[in-house]
Amino acid sequence: MDSFKVVLEGPAPWGFRLQGGKDFNVPLSISRLTPGGKAAQAGVAVGDWVLSIDGENAGSLTHIEAQNKIRACGERLSLGLSRAQPVQSKPQKVQTPDKQPLRPLVPDASKQRLMENTEDWRPRPGTGQSRSFRILAHLTGTEFMQDPDEEHLKKSSQVPRTEAPAPASSTPQETWPGPTAPSPTSRPPWAVDPAFAERYAPDKTSTVLTRHSQPATPTPLQSRTSIVQAAAGGVPGGGSNNGKTPVCHQCHKVIRGRYLVALGHAYHPEEFVCSQCGKVLEEGGFFEEKGAIFCPPCYDVRYAPSCAKCKKKITGEIMHALKMTWHVHCFTCAACKMPIRNRAFYMEEGVPYCERDYEKMFGTKCHGCDFKIDAGDRFLEALGFSWHDTCFVCAICQINLEGKTFYSKKDRPLCKSHAFSHV
């Protein structure tokens, strides 16, 4: 625990905010710093304990007494601080879930903080389903879990192959490698919850990630290399020759030679084709939808969603925001025109803004401490300015004036007792 002393030259603002106090049974500490402010330039860090203020022990001070003590230091503020950890080069910005504010910051605007994520629409090699939309919720959760579709793949992708005894004089046939078992993956930190949109705060618009909806049971993405059979007398799904001859599910003829096994049926390799374009399905895999088989390009064109802005099909990376689907390059900040992607954004007059541009154009600061009024902060408006509820105090005695009668002199509030005092 390192103790040190910092001297800040006035006048205010000093560039920091306090938390704790004797009345909270928590030691006084620095809760926030103004970037580039006096405290930050002097080496003060968020989390530093305040041991003394202007030479007076801070351990016996309540929160309001500590504030008044700091305000009383006009041109010079001396702080005794204690630090448990080394100062980081930059304070980490922690995004916490927004709680519903008591009142909107901008009365005529629908300020909504949204989180979005992107997801690759291209078929992943070895993934375990024909794509299906799933609503992902609990934006504030931290639960990770194994994708059930991956477990389904591990069981269903192991297609047995049969080998018929070949004559001794025949040439050894090529061994086809089986599919590589997919490595376990983790979902993002959200849990599946179809009722999320109804439970979400009414003054915010949710952003969710989904996959294309499939009414049929998802079928694993098959690889031709894993299901080509090298024998003429084997049976689909069987490991030995039991005397039965495979019959092609497409032409209903007996198969002599190599054949495919897919979806529980045997096929001639040249007759296992896409239902839409007629292309022979190669090693790239296929998708099954309502009994029909599609190659990945045809499946994307037929079942991929449309972009809410350009109305074109989305076959690559896809983004879900405002209960609609978008190309990543179509959902951009209205000010800087950059794709918002995984960042937080706000809605103002029906258009999205990235966090940086929104704060620059529409941000509200407290007139008392010069800090931004965040969503969820208690605040009030008086004298033509916005104030944190704890910052609206008498300029003389520092008594809190929220909900009380006050007077004004030089845009500074005064209590009833100091209404005629010089400011």
Automatic annotation (TrEMBL):
Region spans: Disordered: 82-192, 205-224
GO biological process: actin cytoskeleton organization; heart development; muscle structure development
Xref: Pfam families: LIM, PDZ
Comp. bias (Polar residues): 85-98
A GO CC term assigned to this protein in UniProt: Z disc
Residue ranges constituting the PDZ domain according to the UniProt record: 9-85
SUPFAM superfamilies with a match to the protein in the record: Glucocorticoid receptor-like (DNA-binding domain), PDZ domain-like
Family annotation (InterPro entries): PDZ, PDZ-LIM_domain, PDZ_sf, Znf_LIM
Places the protein is found: Cytoplasm, Cytoskeleton
GO molecular function, one term: actin binding
RNA-binding listed as a keyword: no
Keyword check for Transmembrane: no
Residues spanning the signal sequence: none
PROSITE patterns registered for this protein in UniProt: LIM_DOMAIN_1 (PS00478), LIM_DOMAIN_2 (PS50023), PDZ (PS50106)
Composition bias type Basic and acidic residues, residue spans: 110-123
Residues covered by the LIM zinc-binding domain: 246-304, 305-364, 365-423
Key words, A-Z: Cytoplasm, Cytoskeleton, LIM domain, Metal-binding, Repeat, Zinc
Protein name: PDZ and LIM domain protein 7
Organism annotation: Pongo abelii
Name of the gene encoding the protein in the UniProt record: PDLIM7
